[in-house]
Amino acid sequence: MADILQGTGAGGPSGHRAWHARDAKAAGGVGSRTVRVRVSATLVVLIVLAALVVPLLVPLDRQAVDLAVKLRAPSLAHPFGTDEVGRDLLLRCVYGLRVSLLVGVVAALAATVIGTAVGALAGTLGGWADRAVMRVVDLFSSVPHLLLGIFIVAMFRPGVGPVIVSVALTHWLSTARIVRAEVLSLRSRPFIDAAVSGGASRWRVAVRHVLPGVLPQAGLAAVLMVPHAIWHESALSFLGLGLPAHEASLGNMVNSARSSLLAGDWWPTLFPGLFIIVPTLAIAGLAGAWRERLNPRRRSELML
After folding, report:
1. What is the H or E stretch that residue 28 is in?
2. In whole angstroms, what is the distance from residue 244 CA to residue 247 CA?
3. Which residue in 101, 107, 97, 104 sits closest to 252, CA to CA?
4. What is residue 79's three-state secondary structure?
5. Long-range pairs for 82-90: beta carbons < 8 A, 24 or more residues apart
6. In angstroms, how far is the first alpha carbon of the chain from the final one?
7. Three-state SS for 139?
8. What's the pTM?
9. Distance between CA atoms of residues 302 and 162, nearest Å
10. pLDDT in tens, 234-262
């Protein structure tokens, strides 16, 4: 009673100020999250447009060599400067970005399909089959992704295809775990018990009820996997195991620019690096917003 009379209780001025502060903080969280989503979406749109439009607007062969203009600093003629053999860095960065996006999207989709199939199979069958499948997943997870990817691409000639296969075969494990956990959660729902009691086969239950329930999580896993695939491709190309050295790959460009950086020429390293970092951050920002939407409890925790 004394607290209320003094204005320090939940109904007093201090309590009202606390609630208003919490509401303002929650509103600020929503506002910052909206800004983040808008910035990420704008960057993704600009990245896709750049990958599609810039090669059409800039009439310059991406492999053209002109030693007379090698290592020129950024200028109006060459906004990103030129590399060690006089090639325009802007166009080469865009072509490298196209390769990275191709590898990222295709490999992420392939890995998601594999992981969804394995996770759904393990969660649906249960018992010894579930344990056996998850032990295989644990076995592959014990090997570092990059090391396993190097082993895979080393068996083929350098190119986009082997890199996609390498990324897909090393990134499906987390999706399998997520889908399996979601399937186990769905199996305990009343509508699944009703479908089984109504005589539905295990296959019908899996296709009609379980699979639609795990698709949002699988889609989120695919989006989150794209940045990982981009970095994986860049790392393999940087090590000389991805695309051929003459191809416009962001990893190749960073690798070939090391000597230029030591000589004080910063632009051959900076711009390819930005073309790796910015798309991954933009895609990760959109994926984070999607994850918060799928998990309202987590979203409310982030607001408080």
Report:
1. helix 13-57
2. 6
3. 97
4. coil
5. 83/253, 83/256, 83/257, 83/260, 83/268, 84/256, 84/257, 84/259, 84/260, 84/268, 87/62, 87/63, 88/58, 88/60, 88/62, 88/64, 89/253, 89/267, 89/268, 89/271, 89/272, 90/54, 90/58, 90/271
6. 29
7. helix
8. 0.76
9. 40
10. 888 888 888 887 777 888 888 888 888 88
Tokens, residue 235: 């790392």
C-alpha distances (whole Å) from 14 to each of 6, 9, 21, 22, 172 are 10, 7, 10, 12, 52
DSSP state of 248: -
Q: How confident is the model at residue 109 (pLDDT cuts 50, 70, 90)?
A: very high
Interval 134-169: pLDDT, tens: 898 888 888 888 888 888 888 888 788 888 998 898
Distance CA 228, CA 256 (A): 22
* Burial grade of 130 (CB within 10 A; 0-12, 13-18, 19 or more): middle
Within 10 Å of residue 28's Cβ, how many Cβ atoms? 11
Per-residue confidence at 227, pLDDT binned at 50, 70, 90? Answer: confident
DSSP letter at 241?
S
Structure tokens at 142: 């014990």
- Tokens for 102, please give them: 């191709």
AA letter at 31: G
Rounded to 5 degrees, φ, ψ at 71 are 50, 45
Cβ partners under 8 Å of residue 258, min gap 6: 269
Two tokens at 83? 């590399």
- Are the CB atoms for 101 and 51 separated by under 8 Å? yes
pLDDT for res 7? 45
- For residue 167, give both structure tokens: 């990324």
Map residue 102 onto helix, strand or coil.
helix
The tokens describing 157, both together, are 């000639």
Beta-sheet strands, E only, within 8-77 = none
